Task: inverse folding
C-alpha cells in the first residue's frame, strides 16, 4: 500500500468514529469496507458460550434475512467453524476464507462480520 492510499484509508476509517454508535456507525463501517472490496451483504453475530448466536446487525432484505439470519439461528450455526471455535475454547483466527464466505472475526466478544460472494 502506498503512502497516499494509506492516508486515504486511515482518514476514511477515522471518520467512522465521528458517526454515532449503533446502526449509523455499522452502516458507515459497511460503506468503508465496500470501498475496499466488493461485498453483497453484511451480518454481525455475537457468539457467547454455547448459546444461539445473537444477530446484532445485517444489511439483508427481509426475505434474505429469513434465510441467512433466521434460518442460520435455527440450527445450522451448530456447524459453523466460528461457533465451534467459541464453544471449544480454540485460539482465535483473524480471517477464515472460503469460496463462498469470508469471515472477519473480532474475538474480544467473539463476534463476526460475514459477507457472501456473488451468486
Result:
Amino acid at each position: 500500500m502506498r503512502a497516499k492510499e494509506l492516508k486515504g484509508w486511515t482518514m476514511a476509517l477515522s471518520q467512522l468514529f465521528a458517526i454515532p454508535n449503533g446502526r449509523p456507525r455499522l452502516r458507515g463501517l459497511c460503506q468503508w469496507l465496500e470501498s475496499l472490496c466488493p461485498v453483497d451483504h453484511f451480518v454481525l453475530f455475537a457468539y457467547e458460550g454455547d448459546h444461539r448466536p445473537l444477530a446484532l446487525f445485517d444489511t439483508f432484505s427481509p426475505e434474505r434475512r429469513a434465510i441467512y439470519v433466521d434460518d442460520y439461528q435455527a440450527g445450522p450455526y451448530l456447524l459453523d467453524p466460528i461457533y465451534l471455535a467459541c464453544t471449544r475454547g480454540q485460539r482465535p483466527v483473524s480471517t477464515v476464507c472460503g469460496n463462498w464466505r469470508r469471515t472477519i472475526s473480532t474475538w474480544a466478544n467473539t463476534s463476526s462480520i460475514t459477507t457472501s460472494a456473488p451468486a
